[in-house]
Structure formats: C-alpha cells, structure tokens
Design a protein that fits this description.
Layout: E1 5-11, H1 16-19, H2 33-45, E2 53-56, H3 60-71, E3 81-83, H4 100-111, H5 116-122, H6 125-135, H7 144-161, E4 166-172, H8 174-184, E5 199-205, E6 208-213
Parallel strand pairs: 1-4, 2-3, 2-4
Antiparallel strand pairs: 1-5, 5-6
Length: 216
C-alpha cells in the first residue's frame, strides 16, 4: 500500500551559541529565554495538528524545543519523543564553537570567493560542505556525502515506522533541513537561512519525498 505521510520539520529554537553567532553543530547549548518564547508561538501555530509520532535529534536543544511545542498541542496525548542521532546537526570538526564570521573567512579563502553571496551563487551546497572538510586541520568535519548518508538513513527510519496518513513532528537543525530541501526541491535556495523555530513541510508519497513549504 502506498503510504502518505506529512512531516513537519521544525528547526530548534534560538540557543545561546546562536545568539553569540558561533558555530553549533554537535556542540550543544540551551535555548535562550527569547528562543523559548518564539518556540511557544510555533507550538500555538501547530496546536491543532495531531502528531502521531515525535522525533528529534539526540541533541538537547531539539528535545527542549519539542517539549515546548507539545505543551501547546490540543490533540497530543502522545508525548513520547524518539531521539534519532542520524538527524543531528552537521559536524563542523575543529571549527565547532568558532565565531561564524571567522569561520567563513577561511571557507571563502578556500573557495576563491569574496563574500558568502558569491560563495553560494557559484558553488553548490555539496561543494561548500566539502570545502569545510578540506580546510579542517583534523579532517573531522563532515562532508556532504557523509552528512547526507546519515540524514537519508534517519528519514527512511521514520517512514518505515509510520502508517498511512500520519503527521510527524521532526525537530532538527538548520543545516539538516537545508540539506533535505536541497535534495528534494528545485526551489530551494542554499543561501537562505533556515530560521530558528520555523516550520518546513515535507511530504512522503509514492515512495518519494517532496517539499511542500519552506521556512514558514
């Protein structure tokens, strides 16, 4: 039987490292008070959606966000949160915790571009992520194939566990959502930031994922 599943992809709320404009991949930090307030508003927007399953990455900022969203939900008696480490943020290797502006100076030097607009205009998301691994002195940063492989595993795990006509709440990360959009939508703009607490909608039907909306 063909399954049709709707996935609500929510980026976690603003964290302290977001506020300080620092790279935050596998490094974790708690939500700011303002981040919590905006997540609560997102929860109110989703209050009438009955979620059959709730997934997060294994990083606490996504779990904290999911709990705040579920507090606002009128339909959800199910509060079980399934953590999936395949859906955690990209690993920035030795650049974790670095100021984003300093980090991009190194990426731009590697790419030969003068600014981030030129970087994303002239290079694919895959190329940019591969640049990052190349300039990491330890080569620990994930490149695009490594990153996408585990995201794909994570998504397939979700749809294999779900039934027809179910709604899924997936609280994850900015680069994760951007990469999913990059894979499944021609309308995706890789320069576009995925906002904290924003909602993007992914639909699974006929064994295929498609992007319904971005950054709502």
């Amino acid at each position: 039987m063909n399954k049709k599943i709707k996935l609500f992809l929510v980026r976690h709320g603003e964290t302290y490292l977001n506020k300080y404009n620092k790279l935050q991949g596998w490094t974790d930090s708690p939500l700011t008070e303002n981040g919590k307030r905006i997540v609560t508003k997102t929860g109110k927007r989703l209050k009438n959606v009955p979620f059959h399953y709730i997934y997060t990455s294994d990083l606490e900022r996504t779990v904290e966000t999911a709990k705040l969203i579920l507090e606002q939900n009128r339909n959800n008696k199910n509060r079980n949160i399934h953590k999936n480490n395949n859906l955690r943020e990209v690993f920035f290797g030795s650049f974790e915790g670095e100021y984003i502006d300093d980090f991009y100076k190194k990426v731009l030097q590697q790419s030969g571009c003068n600014n981030t607009t030129a970087l994303y205009k002239n290079h694919s998301l895959e190329e940019v992520m591969n640049f990052i691994k190349k300039i990491d002195p330890f080569s620990h940063a994930e490149n695009y194939p490594e990153f996408w492989k585990r995201i794909e595993i994570g998504l397939n795990e979700i749809v294999s566990q779900c039934c027809n006509n179910e709604n899924i709440l997936l609280v994850t990360h900015g680069v994760v959502i951007k990469t999913i959009i990059n894979e499944f939508s021609k309308k995706g703009n890789i320069e576009q930031e995925i906002k904290n607490s924003s909602i993007s909608i992914l639909e699974y039907s006929n064994n295929t994922f498609s992007v319904v909306s971005i950054n709502g």
